[in-house]
């Protein structure tokens, strides 16, 4: 376990329930503590350490589950350290869901090192199931596709004051526009997600763009995270609109909104397809933390069975429930 | 094209739009007519004939698209005739979505003949996309599954007076109960569908059962198909509830309702998963005729690429949009 925070702890528990043995754990603020104490899982005797390369070299795991960061630049060094010591790696790093377009050189380097050492690197999570596989499957019931448009949202209140400030909650429209002009924001998660949808569907990406639109309060709205009331007309958050154009014609769009929810609003995942025929898909129940962890765990046997290299979820077999123990699903590679 | 009715005509048009050449057509009531006249597709010069074996033997197609019937007993002879002359077959026969449990001997015979002649037999359609692949993908985001329950419906009004009478529209509850006790009904389509979900998810079927419940009118309801008003308390149709139990634990249920719709009701496809975590999935837009045809057409390259035998949709690669020409997606087999 490389990363033992909220996600790492849930994944560790699910993995042990599927018969996996945890042979090592690497953390940051919890170094020296027993993994059982930090994760709440009984029957693991591992103590959390600090140096991933040392732990992988000593424990020789089949798989490293990495839950430390979201972007290629923040995970690359750790991924390479694991791969070089013969460990497969599966991570939640959102960019790595499909990073051939956003970080082509680093992705190629990971791919080469993984192949050299006969192991794989894959990223999965909620995106894999709800924004890639369900959508690509829906597309498989269409004859012609003009556009596929997804709408997802998250509640600023769930992530504390820092993220609320990042979402510009409370800004005037003018302040928001000025911030947006000068903002050095990290890349959206929507872009690699749509790149994965394109790859899964045999579509060739020719252009990717992102637009950002503020969401304004239509009435005075209290923000718990910032302990303030956002007056009507001021910013509740914003929507990133990622658009990917393909050589074959279909346009893929994902609108991702992070804002202060008002009474009755909830996380959403809704997709519309325009083409022959028009289609749609919606999930009302979205326990994102658990679907993130369960999806990654269901990918584990497929990742261990895959040909070496950087293996995106666009190339894996269909996402499927893997009943029983992980070991029962392994084929000789 | 083996069958040139409503579905066969749409599929023929979609196939030609994907670069396929139609080399023969077999029908029943339209023998002797030009395929272009019956289907409305331009640029096909084929005339509809009556003997599938003769047409396959003469034209040597890569693939026969079969849209003639729903049950193994009604399609088996034609399927075998095609396979024996070296043609792959893809059909809409609902039972054959997964017929290893409902018709094991016939399925084994088809499997053996297909293997002997190096070709495949597969069934696809709306069920493949909406009742198998989307559902099995959703299951792939769960860690533990107690039950998966689908609810689908169709409107008796869409299928004329004969089917309305089959659905017992206008019966009293007593008449319905008496009919049900003595009814010799064909097997449900829900059962092979759930068998396909189980197979796709690595689950072992241990028991399959079907229950049938009447749907009663809560107010006087006019039935156009029968040109009569169904009084409150009498039957508007019924629900077949298929239940499949698996050795691994998950129970799969599909509730399929065919009834006279009242104002505001529409076809539905909604699935709920109980487990860790609870999940759901819904499609509001259901142009079933078009999704049936488009899904089958998207399966064509996968079926042509598959290893010989009876190949169910549980064994095929992920259902995906296949952009461009079918020929571009073919691998040497």
Automatic annotation (TrEMBL), chains A, B:
Residues 3-90 form the Dihydrodipicolinate reductase N-terminal domain. GO terms for biological process: lysine biosynthetic process via diaminopimelate. CDD domains: nat-AmDH_N_like (cd24146). SUPFAM superfamilies: NAD(P)-binding Rossmann-fold domains (SSF51735). The keyword NADP applies. One of its GO terms (molecular function) is 4-hydroxy-tetrahydrodipicolinate reductase. Keywords: NADP, Oxidoreductase. The keyword Oxidoreductase applies. InterPro entries: DAP_DH_C, DapB_N, NAD(P)-bd_dom_sf. Signal peptide: none annotated. This is Dihydrodipicolinate reductase. It comes from Leucobacter denitrificans.
């Amino acid at each position: 376990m490389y990363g033992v925070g909220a996600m790492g702890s849930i994944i560790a528990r699910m993995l042990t329930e599927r018969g996996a043995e945890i042979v090592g754990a690497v953390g940051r603020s919890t170094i020296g503590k027993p993994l059982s104490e930090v994760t709440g899982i009984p029957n693991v005797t591992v103590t959390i350490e600090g140096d991933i390369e040392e732990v992988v070299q000593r424990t020789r795991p089949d798989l490293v589950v990495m839950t430390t960061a979201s972007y290629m630049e923040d995970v690359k060094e750790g991924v390479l350290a694991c791969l070089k010591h013969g460990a497969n790696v599966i991570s939640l790093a959102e960019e790595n869901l499909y990073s051939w377009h956003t970080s082509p050189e680093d992705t190629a380097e990971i791919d080469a090192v993984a192949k050299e050492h006969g192991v794989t690197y894959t990223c999965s999570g909620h995106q894999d199931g709800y924004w890639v596989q369900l959508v690509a499957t829906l597309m498989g019931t269409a004859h012609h596709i003009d556009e596929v448009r997804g709408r997802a949202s998250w509640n600023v209140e769930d992530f504390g004051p820092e993220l609320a400030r990042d979402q510009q909650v409370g800004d005037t429209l003018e302040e928001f526009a000025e911030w947006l002009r000068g903002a050095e924001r990290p890349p959206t998660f929507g872009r690699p997600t749509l790149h994965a949808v394109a790859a899964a569907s045999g579509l060739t990406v020719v252009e990717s763009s992102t637009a950002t639109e503020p969401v304004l309060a239509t009435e005075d709205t209290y923000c718990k995270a910032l302990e303030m009331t956002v007056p009507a007309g001021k910013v509740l958050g914003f929507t990133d609109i990622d658009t990917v154009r393909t050589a074959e014609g279909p346009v893929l769009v994902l609108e991702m909104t992070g804002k202060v929810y008002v009474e009755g609003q909830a996380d959403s995942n809704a997709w519309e397809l325009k083409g022959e025929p028009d289609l749609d898909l919606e999930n009302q129940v979205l326990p994102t933390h658990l679907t993130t962890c369960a999806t990654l765990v269901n990918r584990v046997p497929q990742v261990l069975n895959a040909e070496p290299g950087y293996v995106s979820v666009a190339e894996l077999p269909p996402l499927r429930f893997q009943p029983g123990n992980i070991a029962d699903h392994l084929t000789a590679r």
